[in-house]
Amino acid sequence: MINVTNIQNVEVQVFSFQEFFTQKAIYPVGIDSYQRPFVWGKSKIIELIKDLREYLENPNDLQYYMGNILLHQHNEKQKLFIIDGQQRLTTLCTLYYILNDGLLPNGKMALEYHSPISAKNILNAKALFQEIKTEWQDKADFLFNNLQFTFITTLSEDLAFTFFDTQNNRGVKLNPTDLLKAYHLRAIGNAEYLKIQTNCAFRWEKIQGSKTLFGQKKDFIAELFHQFLWRSRCWNGQKVIYREQDEDILNEFQKKAIKQLQPDTVPLYPNTNNTLATALQLKSQQQFTLYPAAVEMSSTSAYLPFTLRQPISEGLGFFLFAEKYADLVKIIFFNQADTNPEIKAVRTFYNHVLQHISLYLKELHLLAIVMYFDKFGSNRLLEFTLWFDHILGALRLEKYYIFKEASLKFLKETDNNIFDVISQSFRPEEVISFLSELKHVSQNLDIEKIYARTDLPDNGVRGAYKSSLYKYYTKQNLVGKSNWITPTILNSKLQ
Fold it and tell me: Among the three residues 118, 142, 173, which one is the final residue of a domain in this structure?
């Protein structure tokens, strides 16, 4: 052991894995609620096995150094919480468990995960380590006595949080949503609200393991904030529209967040799920009567009285906001048990047609559906979906390749940004009229002329999309497609 320094609530020491867990850890080592799941996949585990095998074959009397571990010593909870390094420690504790048929009996290895993502990856790691158990079992003591770390321990929670985004040289880069989780859990406050903090962390991890829509991101939380929440708020106007970077996510949902009044209280703003009255009546003597809206209580967060472009409140408000839109996305695209005919019809259209459109246009369309549903509920949802597909479909059929900038160009070049139209409208008719009267999908592309073309290909991505339209509408060509979206068609799809 080498004692490097011990100043002002920060202690820096070098220990081997074995020495730390058997002698030096003052409290059990755990994972605080703001940490993300265990995300090391098979490739990362195989890489570690390869590195350690090379070391075991040629140790050269040197210890194997594995970087820094950042810890927060929480005296009240009597825990050493890992700030940075949990992926490495979880992996090594799993390896220790396999090689020694159990963890240390002193209870210092107290890492607990509740996410299905963690469970899956830990099981994969155990399976890989099981394959090398016979080869390494007699070398276990040597290995864990020579795996060396620099343990940086702080007594200050503020300093611990400052350290949280420090990257180690063998770790997995943190997503901005990991940092948002940490920031807003901490904003909930002191031990008095520990139950709220723990509940928010549990809800977050439950959302994180949900099925994704686009497959680009492995956890649904990252997809939710990138593809839906940030874009719905920041793709406004028609001048400055761009694709988000990590810093943009943090700026919108952390730096702009409003300080909470009380950790257990969330401010509300007027919206379709929070209307004081449904009607105003003028009485004979010039008096007014307000008819209050029915207040529905639901077990699903999808109907919480929030709206996409409202201010974000720190702490509880942030987590409930995220949960609301996670549930809303699930209701529209995944919840097969939902019996709402409009939602069922839109999900059918999504499965049969939108799956054949390009990724970038699909992102745009699904975001528009979520924004529309957030504003108007299921009222004329299918009609909106079909009209928006009519517009984007023209772009899909005209262009052989749909590049990443196509969706941004569409928002900039149409008469108005569709997301602003949705946000600023009072009735579904306003949005549907905007779409049905739109003549150009961009400055040089006439919608009617595109659908009137007779030379559109029957194969490839454009052919697949065209074929999906024929099947859905039971048509043989696309001429006059703007006349297809009729009450008769809509009623038949809503049966």
Answer: 173
